């Protein structure tokens, strides 16, 4: 998959680019609803012997428009989004830099510049897609703004249990610890990438060595607690348990949560290695224990419960 970052104005023209079927949207999470839009473009490209593309935006348009300075956290940070789109068979990824200048474009100018000039011949979008200044362009105006240069397919709302599948709904599920339902709506297991860094090595001293993951601050993590996880490293998959939190039994002044993973049946040095952590099941809240012995006893129970969970999941 070729990734192309665009700002306004760009210098591409349709004469230099292949005919393309594209899906357009922000697509945070790339959940089942998003996948229907993206798969429509990929299928259309194959049928027309053209290239497929996803046109997306970065950073989150809502954060630019709100201008509140808050750290944006994504269900799928950009690197994760790229990996998933490649797995979905997308040929090209256009990442449009969303800034105040782009937000001020009128809808027709946006379509002329970022759709027609990119030689898009078929555009797939969700029913709630909007574009142009103050979102004045929407799914209903795409055909008029196409100037006859491309065809349009609008994907209607995708639901589960009579509710719209949305990034907002998935965020709420993650914050409540309902990983199974979040993963069902995503159509895959939530994952995050992190590099193993040096920790205080306290886990090793109590019989539960952990890999401490340095995870990008723009990755949305589930609620604080203990989880059944899988770790992917060098095409191998390991089961384990992760603690996402502040380690209150030993630390009283930690401001940001950390991720510590005990990988079952594995005890080699992974410092500096990038791991993919898959979140499968929420086990319990993080608790402050009065003694090390109480903590060890609970971790032994957690391990037994998690091994049991994965045994029945196979």
From TrEMBL:
Belongs to the ribF family. This is Riboflavin biosynthesis protein. It comes from Lentibacillus kimchii. Pathway: Cofactor biosynthesis; FMN biosynthesis; FMN from riboflavin (ATP route): step 1/1; Cofactor biosynthesis; FAD biosynthesis; FAD from FMN: step 1/1. Its EC number is 2.7.1.26, 2.7.7.2. Keywords: ATP-binding, FAD, Flavoprotein, FMN, Kinase, Multifunctional enzyme, Nucleotide-binding, Nucleotidyltransferase, Transferase. The keyword Nucleotide-binding applies. GO terms for molecular function: FMN adenylyltransferase activity; riboflavin kinase activity. Pfam families: FAD_syn, Flavokinase. Residues 185-311 form the Riboflavin kinase domain. It catalyses: FMN + ATP + H(+) = FAD + diphosphate; riboflavin + ATP = FMN + ADP + H(+).
């Amino acid at each position: 998959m070729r990734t192309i970052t665009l700002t306004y104005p760009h210098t591409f023209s349709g004469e230099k680019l292949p005919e393309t079927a594209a899906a357009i949207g922000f697509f945070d999470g790339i959940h089942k609803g998003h996948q229907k839009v993206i798969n429509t473009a990929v299928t259309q490209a194959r049928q027309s012997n053209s290239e497929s593309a996803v046109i997306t935006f970065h950073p989150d348009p809502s954060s630019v428009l709100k201008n509140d300075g808050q750290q944006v956290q994504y269900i799928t940070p950009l690197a994760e989004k790229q990996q998933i789109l490649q797995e979905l068979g997308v040929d090209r990824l256009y990442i449009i830099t969303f800034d105040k200048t782009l937000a001020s474009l009128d809808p027709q100018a946006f379509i002329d510049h970022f759709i027609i000039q990119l030689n898009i011949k078929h555009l797939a979008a969700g029913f709630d897609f909007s574009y142009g200044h103050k979102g004045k362009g929407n799914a209903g105006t795409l055909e008029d703004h196409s100037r006859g240069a491309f065809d349009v397919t609008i994907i209607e709302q995708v639901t589960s249990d009579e509710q719209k599948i949305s990034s907002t709904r998935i965020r709420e599920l993650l914050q409540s610890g309902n990983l199974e339902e979040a993963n069902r709506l995503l159509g895959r297991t939530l994952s995050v990438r992190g590099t193993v860094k040096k920790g205080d090595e306290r886990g090793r001293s109590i019989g539960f060595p952990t890999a401490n993951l340095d995870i990008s601050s723009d990755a949305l993590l589930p609620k604080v607690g203990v989880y059944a996880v899988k770790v992917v490293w060098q095409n191998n998959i390991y089961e384990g348990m992760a603690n996402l939190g502040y380690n209150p039994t030993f630390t009283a002044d930690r401001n940001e949560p950390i991720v510590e993973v005990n990988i079952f049946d594995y005890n080699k040095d992974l410092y500096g290695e990038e791991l993919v952590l898959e979140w499968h099941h929420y086990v319990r809240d993080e608790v402050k224990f009065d003694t090390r012995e109480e903590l060890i006893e609970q971790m032994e129970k957690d391990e037994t419960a998690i091994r049991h969970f994965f045994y029945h999941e196979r």
